[in-house]
Design a protein that fits this description.
Helix 1 crosses helix 8 (195-203) and helix 6 runs antiparallel to helix 10 (215-229). The protein is of the alpha/beta class. The protein has a domain at 8-140 and 161-190 and 238-247: Rossmann fold, CATH 3.40.50.150. The chain has 10 helices and 7 strands. Helix 3 (51-58) links the parallel strand 1 (41-45) and strand 2 (62-67). The protein is globular. The structure holds S-adenosylmethionine (SAM).
């Protein structure tokens, strides 16, 4: 299946079971981007069914959602009537230069080639604008049921590795030389789901679907393992949310590569 249509069969599970993002993330985003979300022009790439889109709209931002999956965008438009969405690739954005205050990727930056998508983001950003990328990651270290789930996935889902999203995201953006400043913040939280909802959450993951004709075996093993850890069928899962914000030079005069070595003082 091509990357473009990978998410199409996941739409219903995705929309029902994926977590939204903690309120704190949007407070940190305003702080690091140096501006309020209210009134900001935002291009949100990999918008999917619109989970982050609706959170940005609720804070008064003007958002143009972009995605290359027709299924995901279709659901976004049903859930958010009247919002214009654009079917396009984050690596070739169909927008003029310097039109956005923020370019955002919620749970989607790992799907693009960083040097190409970062250059596209920098092109459409206004001076002083920012690229913001973030993820909700499960923080399961030291949890027996999580360890068993990861071992099962590494055995049953071709190419899956639990550390697939452990990359130096901020450094990769610094290395492009496109941004004046790159900052990372993170926070922890958790949510509790009944077993049936937790199973839907598993089904919404592309690497779980990649187990193919072993999917039902995988889910049956998960049910047994989860009920051992959570006999009342209420699954509590810890999350780690990471936000990386890369700011453009406010004067539009090029990139500050290093801080000045000396400060000039008035005589
Ligand atoms: C994991 S989903 C995230 C959806 C949503 N942002 C959220 O927070 O739930 C990733 C989304 O990125 C989209 N995507 C992946 N690569 C893309 C690309 N190169 N250009 C545009 N969209 C892309 C997928 O179609 C999918 O809808």
């Amino acid at each position: 299946m091509s990357a473009r249509s990978l998410f199409d069969p996941l739409v219903a599970a995705y929309d029902a079971a994926r977590p939204s993002y903690p309120r704190r993330l949007f407070v940190d985003l305003e702080w690091l981007a140096g501006r309020k979300l209210a009134g900001a022009d935002i291009i949100e790439v990999g918008a999917g069914t619109g989970i982050a889109t609706r959170q940005l709209l609720a804070r008064g931002a003007r958002v143009i959602p972009v995605d290359h999956s027709p299924g995901m965008l279709g659901r976004l438009c049903e859930r958010t009537p009247g919002l214009g969405a654009v079917r396009a690739d984050g690596e070739a954005l169909p927008f003029a230069d310097a039109v956005a205050d923020l370019v955002c990727y919620a749970q989607a930056w790992h799907w693009v080639q960083v040097p190409v998508a970062a250059a596209e983001a920098a092109r459409v950003l206004r001076p002083g604008g920012a690229l913001a990328v973030w993820w909700n990651d499960v923080d399961g270290a030291d949890l027996g049921w999580w360890e068993r789930q990861q071992q099962r996935l590494e055995a049953m889902s071709p190419g899956y590795r639990r550390d697939h999203r452990l990359r130096p995201w901020a450094d990769e953006l610094r290395w492009t030389g496109l941004f004046a400043e790159v900052v990372t913040v993170s926070g922890r939280w958790s949510r509790t789901l009944v077993l049936e909802a937790y199973e839907l959450w598993l089904r919404s993951k592309s690497y779980v679907q990649a187990t193919g004709d072993r999917l039902e075996d995988f889910l049956a093993a998960e049910r047994r393992s989860l009920l051992k850890a959570f006999p009342d069928g209420m699954i509590t899962e810890p999350f780690h949310t990471v936000l990386v914000v890369a700011r453009m030079d406010p004067l539009g005069e090029g990139v500050v590569i290093a801080p000045p070595v000396a400060t000039l003082r008035d005589p």
